[in-house]
Amino acid sequence: LNSVYLSLGKNITFVRPAYFIISGFIGIPNVKYYYVFLCFVYLVSVLGNTAVMAVIILDHNLRTPKYIAVFNLAFADLFGSSALVPKVLDIFLFNHHRIIYNDCLTFMFFCYTCLSMQALNLVALAYDRLVAIIFPLHYQVKVTHRFMFSLIASFWLFIITVTFIAVGLLTRLSYCQSVVVNSYFCDHGQIYKLACNDKTPNIVIGGLLPILILWFPLVFILVSYSCIGYALSKVATFQERLKAFKTCTAHLSLVIIYFLPILITFTMSAKIHPNARIINLSLTSVFPPMLNPIIYVLQTQEIKVSVKTLLKIRKQSKITVKKVMIK
């Protein structure tokens, strides 16, 4: 059941399907247990990221430029997971494999926007660490609240724009044969490959997006840590180097967790089985949002102190309330 659209002012016909069919895994028995596992990961992610955002809001000591970026990372993780996982569970646990054409493009837009924003958040945190270690005396001047807000806002604007262009270009494609998407969600690459007219602009943007939202951020982060490593090599004592490096461990952990699996998937996508690709992409989409808050709570001294302080205040307030009630 295809809908036919005529482009304004030109005699061009676009054949758009009424819906796409998300195929998911091929030939794997009891695959629903995997989606139940994704549901569990999602719930942990929601709790963890909500807790990190709440701690940053409640503790005035964490109202620093660095924690503006950490808050935005938690927000992007929470928003991205909520855009992806509930819909995936609806598709595969409740057998709603057909997604209306416009709903599929909307689903794609929000998933790609939030997942891409995670990489740019890591760039903001890398810049924060770079200035803090190499230019410690100028940190308060170079990394201000206004600067961090402006940087993150520009990242959101950039990601929303490029994702909107990528999704918008799909609307000029015609789908004459299959509407089965060989993925677990409305995957940009898998959808434009189904088209039967000229796909050149889609191929170009499909090749450009990984460069803009994966390779450039990764190169910047690697260059940043090369500069940090060089600066630390000049520090007199080993203890001073270790102390400075410890402030980077949480961020480095996030970089490895986010970039390593997704780069392996993209560089080997032509060689790996579709089922393996789905597993890699789905785990890459849900695991970093789950692990990010855990890593920051365990490896960041300020957040650990803040959590202990907030719990102590809450405990004391309960004791005070009980005493008042007894009196």
TrEMBL record:
It is a multi-pass membrane protein. PROSITE patterns: G_PROTEIN_RECEP_F1_2. InterPro entries: GPCR1_Superfamily_Member, GPCR_Rhodpsn, GPCR_Rhodpsn_7TM, Olfact_rcpt. Signal peptide: none annotated. The keyword Magnesium does not apply. Keywords: Cell membrane, Disulfide bond, G-protein coupled receptor, Glycoprotein, Membrane, Olfaction, Receptor, Sensory transduction, Transducer, Transmembrane, Transmembrane helix. GO terms for cellular component: plasma membrane. The chain crosses the membrane at residues 12-28, 34-58, 67-85, 105-127, 147-170, 208-232, 244-266, 278-298. SUPFAM superfamilies: Family A G protein-coupled receptor-like. It is found in: Cell membrane. PANTHER family: G_PROTEIN_RECEP_F1_2 DOMAIN-CONTAINING PROTEIN, OLFACTORY RECEPTOR 530-RELATED. This is G-protein coupled receptors family 1 profile domain-containing protein.
